Amino acid sequence: MGEALQERRGAALLPRSCCSLRGITSSHAELAGCKMTLTPTPAASIAQAFFCLLLCVPWGSSCPPSCQCTERAGAKAVLCSSRHLEEIPKDIPKDAVFLKLDANSITRIPSNAFRHLSHLEELDLSRNAIEKIDRAAFKGVAAGLRTLDLSSNRIRSIPKEALLALNAKLRLANNPWHCECALQEVLWEARLDPDSVQDITCHTAPREEYVGKPLLQVLDAGVNFCSVRQRTTDVAMFITMFGWFAMVIVYVICYVRHNREDTCKHVDYLKSLPSTQGHAETTSTAL
Q: How far apart are CA 277 and CA 273, in angstroms?
């Protein structure tokens, strides 16, 4: 009789409708539904509410407090736009497919910033204050990422290793780019968005005549920034070799002069020996 009563109490504490939500992403409506299934007895209501909330809340895919998580075409979308963020949130759900971090104050993308987001396909980092991107910034998402928006930031240069490993379509427009060999290689080898490639302009460049012009236009004119860097390297190497050669010549000249002076002193010393010996012989003869 007592065992039967305990079983009935256990069933009252944990309604079937609440258990059915275990493992499913809950919403406010579902939580309200869970609360409505609780029995009206005061003692059991508190326990039922506690167990129901434990089962209904999705602990494994919590949303960052500064963001909004929603569903888009059956996939998890994390919206963190215009939230005054200064760095990338650490607690982004692992099942995120779309991630919007645009219109914030992020200044840097560190290594492995998105490594745990293996399902990520679209990443929007536009309209931030990004100045530095580490070489391994997108490590872990290179295979699945389809779109990466870095437009309208403060990026002057970027390690080509950070982008060339991606299969994503890149948007790099409206940044204060320094036109150099690395940026040229990115333009040649990466998948750039054709609608924004004309807006990649040279904010600074090795020659003043390229400043303010679209990078694509400069390259179409026959400019090769990689060959300019090679020529600069060759000139630097030539100057270094000339400096070493000049040092060797100066050393040889000093060495020869020093030996000549020593030789002259030794010769003078030898010349003085016979006269001294003859004076000694004259003195002995006189005696």
A: 6
- CB distance 243 to 250 below 8 Å: no
Closest by Cα among 54, 65, 66, 67 to 26: 54
∠ Cα 216 150 133 (to 5°): 100
Please state the rounded mean pLDDT for residues 32-60: 47
Listed residue (174, 181, 229) closest to 201, CA to CA: 174
Q: Has residue 95 got a pLDDT over 90?
A: yes
User: What pLDDT score was predicted for residue 240?
Assistant: 75
Residues ≥6 apart with Cβ < 8 Å to 159: 133, 134, 135, 182
Q: How confident is the model at residue 253 (pLDDT cuts 50, 70, 90)?
A: confident
Q: Are 203 and 176 in contact (CB under 8 A)?
A: yes
**pTM of the predicted structure, to 2 decimals:** 0.62
CB-based contact 128:106 (threshold 8 Å): yes
Contact 202, 184 (CB under 8 A): no
Q: Which residue type occupies 80?
A: C
